[in-house]
Specification:
The complex is a heterotrimer of chains A (about 160), B (about 1000) and C (about 130). Chain A folds into 2 domains: about 70 residues; about 80 residues, Glutaredoxin (3-Layer(aba) Sandwich), CATH 3.40.30.10. Helices cover about 45% and strands about 10% of the residues of chain A. Chain A has 8 helices and 4 strands; from the N terminus they run αααααβααβββα. In chain A, α4 crosses α5. By secondary structure, chain B is α/β, with parallel strands linked by helices. Chain B folds into 6 domains: about 110 residues, Glutaredoxin, CATH 3.40.30.10; about 210 residues, 3-Layer(aba) Sandwich (Rossmann fold), CATH 3.40.50; about 190 residues, Ubiquitin-like (UB roll), CATH 3.10.20.600; about 120 residues, Fumarate Reductase Iron-sulfur Protein, Chain B, domain 2, CATH 1.10.1060; about 160 residues, FAD/NAD(P)-binding domain; about 150 residues, FAD/NAD(P)-binding domain, CATH 3.50.50. In chain B, α23 crosses α27 and α32 packs across α34. Chain B is globular and about 100 Å long. Chain C has about 130 residues and is of the alpha+beta class. In chain C, about 40% of the residues lie in helices and about 20% in strands. Chain C is built from 4 helices and 5 strands, in the order αβααβββαβ. In chain C, strands 2-1-3-4-5 form a 5-stranded mixed β-sheet, covered by helices on one side. In chain C, α3 packs across α4. The chains are: A alpha+beta (about 160), B alpha/beta (about 1000), C alpha+beta (about 130). At the A-B interface, α3, α5 and α6 of A face α1, β12 and α17 of B.
């Protein structure tokens, strides 16, 4: 049977794993350490594979079941590999009433993906979110950290073309 | 000290950054450097300024001039003009939404002028990354006072006395919460700040954290001293990176200064704060769930008791307050509880911050005293609703809250009133919704949110929200069933009573609130499978067709015009409307208000294209339908409603006789609307078609005079009453009976009956005419009077935006020289020898909001004035003349002189053989509304007859198949509505020739091609 | 940075308030430096710099400095207008660094109009 470390190596580099170990060491023993470590792990690895969860659990001496429970509870954590860029369309009330749904539908159609999925070329991961707090600009589409406001369906393509 | 001659405060809030604020700031710095101004002018990046809709914004001091929607390309000109030449750049001033008046100074802009800034006192005024700027604004003075001069008991007492209540939504007294925690035994206690702002549409806390992070830290220090805590956490959403960054900087600076950490201000008191990043779960806004989350577990709520004051985070005594609450505390201590409670209402003290969003002109951050009327927030501060749409409701409290509809615009916004109205104050998200909001869809949206965010721990919330969502989804999808509303209400109560935490307990609120105020729209979805707001797309083909009372197939006839198939287009028109040529001229075109093209540039001119079809297509000939039915039907009134019903019934094989009092058929189309809008022959041709079907129209015959109602009753099996509303409402002022005072309907009727007498001046209004009122009838009367050469003034008691008349009619009247005086109401009519000599008026000003959402006009004392006129036309309303129906007929009549309908019936009166429709049921309405009632009456009468006879329902003859081409443009180019060619105003007032000349073929095809084909199913 | 005490809070407040006074509106004097192309060519920039330095050294917070374009009398540039609240505005001509210092110290701070440099008085433009 493959060790968990080998499984980790299939997805991630040694350097990534070393940095993760640093983070675990930093928080180990502190109360409430799990969520900050998982945040760091996701930042380093991009997503939380089963092997990564096991590694964190082992490191913090927390059962895998509890790690999995936390990972699946919070929307920030993902167990799927992510695209190079993340498209997030706001479906908060203010954006919704201003046409956020249409933006979301257009993207689904454009890449033939559903919410939460990643395009085949792993270029984009598409998500919808509840209110980014930029309600004055609705409908809002966020690509990585760039907020694009007052988006119209026919402008989506030219916006996304900037992200290769 | 480094002195600058000017400070430029550039907003660095999230919204301004998102619209390019960072680039603007960079460009500004570069340009100032290039012009050698960097030593004289300082750029300060502030937190959210609040005026988010206008971003990026900047304010230049000492002048206090605000620039809005600044782009980086504007910067060279701005620097050159303002900072070199000293000429403020007017192009970038804020412009008032309706009048477009530029307002340079920030303090004059209504959005800011009506606010009371306390929590937000530093927003847009200080650099949030410099602790010194906060201190300069009395920052940490409250903390210093609390730490050096006050005991914990005194602090708690001061907060209690202030009346401060939790700003996170529930409104629990902050001082009480602190007292419980202070009284709990324990050496470790926690002060927690809830910055997990998750309500869609709410961004108050984010803005406070970004603009003034130290205010929150200071509040926490004071709280820590009050309860005896040494450790605090701020639980902040990971989605707020800028807020987290500013908080981190603030904490570092406070620690450097010894305002946090050990031995604060040399007082021996220790308190430290850590930021905890929330990983995205709405339920973590609930206090026990938030604590569980900090403990590193799934953020699920715990049952209470024990309350957090006793056993909170890690089972230690804890208090949790939200960002805005803490931001109030420093000032409560520094300035005292009396200062704090000097504004607000009896039980809700201080101010409240709202994130004003949705369909409102000035989207942004607003702080007002508790108890400020909703209308003041939406209209004075928010600048009203964009694009002339109507306010429908404000949503407060997000997924836990509810709607406050238009009839409650005067409601003072405080904890108690908002709760009475079925919403909750919530954390301060206020989403303004216009007439295009569907309450069922909104309820579904919020339920979807709660269902998704339910943590799953307790059954009522996990399963209940799911079931409620299914029902709502069904209703929106046209699968609603009778009883669904009651089922939703029942489930809502159970979930409220049994769910474990606030999320579940409040999740049904949006459903209950929308049912409370918009039950009729729920019923329309369930019974008629219709979405009145035009949102639930499963229920209609296109928004325009959905908006049309008779459901005209707009996309199809537009497509046929585009294809040049005008004859086919005409056939489509006639399928639903026997008067398309009339409607192409005078319809109030509800379709155009819902046109989706308006989101790109302008709505399609559907009405003009319709008229084009009737001008250019060949009207298909009509053949008489053989009378196959034995039942005889009488129709009273040959207006659009009566004639439509007569035509429909004749098509079903009934013998129909229409009785009309006046010499010609047409009703208001003939005797109300003047010929310059609707040429008489255009209407007459359409009526000919109805005659051609076999309908008898008997004119000059008034029921009750020429034939008694009982006689009619005896000779016919069924009767349809459609007499219209042909009586003007009296003004109710002295002198009304004098010679020279007319009701608008009576005047227009007399003119249309006896045109020659008026044109040859045998009858005359004199040279000066006052018309009172603001509806279409007032405009019609005024435009007719102008054509007699009179000097005409319309007196209206409200604003132009409030006028019920069609906008295009008002503009046309103005072009023809009609003067309109707003905010004027008549007091009495001045007479000389029994004749009108003038009208004594009073100026009005706007007061409270009425149920329609318009401001009620109230008199201005001492503003009376006299307008010398020769005649007065009163056009303040019309009512039906229903005297011809005897009391013993069994047809009941209501207090508005309209026919009552049988319960749950749309055209049947309280007598089973008598139906009614049009203005005589609804009060004065529209031609298309009357046509709809006619269709409805014919269908219901036929249905009743067949049901009584045990016959199967009527099968309409098979329609000719017309294939509808589908051709759309790949890219939509911006292109406004095509203008309607018109006669010159000077030419128009010479006679009664039709003003609008109709589209050319090229124009019509071009206009029809603008259709986005929302009906297409992809 | 050193830990602060209660009295330091007050000091910080006073210092920063002075720096930021122009955001709050208490002002006694408004000086307008005419900075059209002609003004800058004649040395308005140096005049402005001198003025700013003087304000800084004198530690006054009630003097507001603005710019404006050419007044139409290019031959007499650099020109400045000194407007003390409640008094008529004074326009000075041919201002240079030294004159600026003198105007600042004698007129702006002490209220004594420097008559030899005056071009015009009152609102009316020359």
């Amino acid at each position: 049977m493959k060790s968990n470390y080998d499984e980790l190596l299939e997805e991630f580099t040694e350097e990534q794993i070393r940095q993760l170990d640093d983070a675990i060491a930093l928080y180990k023993g502190q109360p409430g350490a799990l969520i900050p470590v998982l945040e760091k792990a996701q930042e380093l690895l991009g997503f939380l594979s089963a092997s990564a969860q096991k590694h964190v659990g082992d490191g913090l001496n927390i059962p895998l079941s509890q790690v999995y429970g936390v990972v699946t509870f919070y929307s920030l954590f993902t167990m799927q590999p992510r695209g190079k860029h993340t498209i997030r369309v706001c479906l908060g009330t203010a954006c919704y009433v201003r046409g956020g749904k249409k933006i979301s539908d257009s993207i689904k159609q454009m890449f033939n993906i559903e919410e939460g999925e990643t395009t085949e070329d792993r270029r984009f991961t598409f998500e919808t979110v509840r209110c980014l707090g930029a309600c004055g600009l609705g409908p809002v589409m966020v690509v990585d950290d760039d907020v694009h406001g007052r988006v119209k369906p026919d402008k989506i393509k030219s916006i996304l073309d900037q992200y290769r | 000290m480094k002195v600058f001659r000017s400070h430029i405060l550039v907003c660095g809030g999230t919204a301004c950054r998102a619209s390019g604020g960072a680039d603007v700031k960079q460009a500004l710095a570069a340009e100032l450097a290039k012009q050698n101004l960097a030593d004289e002018i300082r750029i300060v990046e502030t937190g959210c300024n609040g005026f988010c809709a206008m971003g990026p914004v900047m304010v230049v001091y000492p002048e206090g001039i605000m620039y809005v929607e600044v782009k980086k390309e504007d910067i060279p000109e701005l620097v050159e003009e303002h900072f070199l030449k000293g000429r403020p750049l007017e192009r970038l001033f804020y412009k008032e939404a309706t009048t477009e008046t530029p307002i340079p100074e920030i303090k004059e802009i209504p959005f800011f002028a009506h606010q009371e800034l306390r929590v937000l006192r530093n927003k847009g005024l200080i650099d949030p990354e410099l602790i010194d700027e906060y201190i300069a604004r009395d920052g940490y003075a409250g903390a210093a006072k609390a730490l050096t001069e006050m005991t914990p008991e005194q602090i708690v007492q001061e907060v209690l006395d202030s009346g401060l209540r939790g700003r996170g939504g529930a409104g629990f007294p902050t001082g009480l919460k602190w007292r419980f925690a202070a009284q709990s035994k324990g050496d470790i206690k926690y002060v927690l700040c809830n910055a997990d702002e998750g309500d869609p549409g709410a961004f108050m806390d984010r803005s406070v954290l970004e603009a003034d992070p130290h205010a929150v830290l200071e509040g926490m220090v004071i709280a820590a001293k009050a309860i005896g805590s040494n450790k605090g956490f701020i639980y902040c959403r990971a989605e707020y990176p800028l807020a987290i960054r500013r908080l981190t900087i603030a904490i570092e600076q406070a620690k450097d200064y010894g305002l946090l950490g050990d031995n604060i201000l040399d007082t021996g008191f220790n308190f430290d704060i850590e930021i905890y990043r929330g990983a995205g779960a709405f339920v973590c806004g609930e206090e026990t769930a938030l604590m569980t989350s900090i403990e590193g577990k799934r953020g699920m709520p715990r049952p209470r008791p024990p309350f957090p004051a006793v056993a909170g985070l890690w089972q230690k005594p804890s208090i949790l307050n939200n960002v805005e609450t803490f931001a109030n505390v420093g000032q409560v201590i520094d300035k005292g509880s009396a200062w704090f409670s000097s504004v607000g209402t009896e039980k809700s003290k201080g101010t409240k911050v709202f994130a004003l969003t949705g369909d409102v002109n000035n989207v942004g951050l607003v702080e007002v005293p508790m108890g400020t009327p909703l209308g003041t927030i939406v209209f004075d501060i928010g600048g009203g609703i964009p694009k002339g749409k109507k306010f429908k409701a404000a949503q407060l409290g997000g997924p836990s809250g509810g709607m406050i509809p238009v009839q409650h615009l005067n409601a003072p916004v405080d904890f108690e009133t908002v709760a009475e109205l079925g919403a909750i104050m919530g954390s301060g998200g206020m989403i303004v919704m216009n007439e295009d909001m569907c309450p069922v869809d909104m309820a579904r949206f919020f339920m979807d949110f709660c269902q998704d965010e339910s943590c799953g721990k307790c059954v009522p919330c996990r399963e209940g929200t799911k079931r409620m969502l299914e029902i709502l989804t069904d209703i929106c999808g046209g699968r609603g069933r009778e009883g669904d509303i009651e089922l939703l209400e029942e489930m809502a109560v159970i979930i409220k009573d049994t769910a474990l935490c606030g999320l579940g307990q409040t999740a049904p609120n949006p459903v209950l609130s929308t049912i409370r105020y918009f039950r009729d729209e729920y019923e329309a979805h369930i019974r008629d499978k219709r979405c009145p707001a035009g949102v639930c797309t499963a229920l209609f083909k296109s928004p325009c067709q959905n908006a049309c009372p008779v459901g005209m197939d707009v996309p199809s006839y537009l497509a046929l015009v585009r294809a040049g198939r005008f004859d086919d287009a005409y056939k489509i028109l006639l399928r639903t409307n026997p008067f398309p040529a009339v409607c192409g001229r005078v319809c109030d075109h509800q379709c155009q208000f819902k046109c989706r093209r308006a989101t790109a540039d302008e709505a399609l001119a559907i009405k003009f294209v319709k008229r084009f079809i009737t001008d250019n297509g060949n009207r298909p000939p009509v053949k008489a339908v053989p009378v196959t039915r034995k039942e005889k039907i009488a129709v009273v009134g040959a207006g659009p409603s009566g004639l439509t019903a007569a035509g429909d019934l004749a098509a079903r094989g009934y013998k129909v006789t229409v009785y009309e009092e006046l010499p010609e058929p047409g009703g208001m189309m003939r005797y109300g609307i003047p010929p310059y809008r609707l040429p008489r022959d255009v209407m007459a041709h359409e009526i000919d078609d109805i005659r051609a079907l076999g309908v008898d129209i008997v004119c000059n015959t008034r029921i009750g005079r020429d034939i008694s109602f009982n006689e009619l009753d005896a000779s016919f099996d069924y009767i349809f009453l459609a007499p219209g509303a042909h009586k003007s409402q009296p003004l109710g002022v002295d002198g009304e009976d004098s010679e020279g005072v007319y009701g608008s309907v009576e005047f227009l009727r007399d003119f249309n009956l006896d045109e020659d007498a008026w044109i040859s001046r045998r009858k005359s209004l004199g040279s000066r005419v006052a018309v009172i009122g603001g509806g279409n009838s007032a405009i019609d009367a005024a435009r007719v009077a102008v054509r007699f050469g009179a000097d005409v003034t319309i007196l209206y008691r409200r604003t132009r935006e409030d006028m019920p008349a069609a906008e295009e009619e008002i503009i046309a009247a103005e072009h023809e020289g009609v003067k309109i005086e707003y905010f004027v109401a008549p007091l009495s009519i001045k007479t000389e020898n029994g004749k009108v000599a003038g009208i004594i008026c009073q100026r009005m000003k706007p007061g409270d909001f009425d149920r329609s959402g318009r401001r009620r006009p109230i008199p201005v004392e001492g503003s009376e004035f006299t307008l010398d006129v020769d005649s007065v036309i009163s056009a303040i309303g019309q009512q039906p003349d229903v005297e011809f129906v005897p009391e013993d007929s069994g047809v009941s009549i209501n207090k508005w002189s309209c026919f009552d309908l049988a319960e749950n019936r749309k055209t049947e009166t309280t007598s089973a053989k008598v139906y009614a429709g049009g203005d005589a049921v609804t009060g004065p309405w529209t031609v298309i509304g009357a046509i709809q009632a006619g269709h409805q009456a014919a269908a219901e009468m036929d249905e009743a007859i067949r049901a009584k006879n045990g016959e199967p329902a009527w099968q309409p003859p098979e329609e000719e198949k017309i294939d509808i081409p589908f051709e759309i443009d790949e890219e939509t180019e911006e292109q406004p509505q095509a203008a309607m060619p018109e006669l010159e105003p000077s030419r128009r007032i010479a006679d009664f020739a039709e003003v609008e000349l109709g589209y050319s073929i090229e124009t019509a095809i071009k206009e029809a091609s603008r259709c986005l084909r929302c009906d297409a199913e992809v | 940075m050193a830990k602060i005490k209660i009295e330091d809070l007050k000091k910080i407040k006073e210092r920063v308030q002075a720096e930021n006074a122009l955001r709050h509106g208490d002002r006694r004097v408004r000086v307008t430096v005419h900075m059209g192309t002609c003004g800058i060519a004649a040395g308005a920039r140096e005049v402005m710099t001198t003025l700013m330095k003087e304000i800084e050294e004198a530690q006054v917070s009630d003097v507001v400095v603005t710019t404006s374009g050419c007044m139409g009398l290019c031959s007499r540039e650099p020109e400045i207008t000194v407007e003390i609240v409640g008094e008529e505005p004074i326009v000075y001509e041919y201002v240079n660094e030294n004159k600026m210092r003198q105007i600042f110290r004698r007129h702006i701070l002490e209220g004594e109009i420097q008559t030899p440099f005056v071009l015009a008085r009152g609102k009316e433009q020359p």
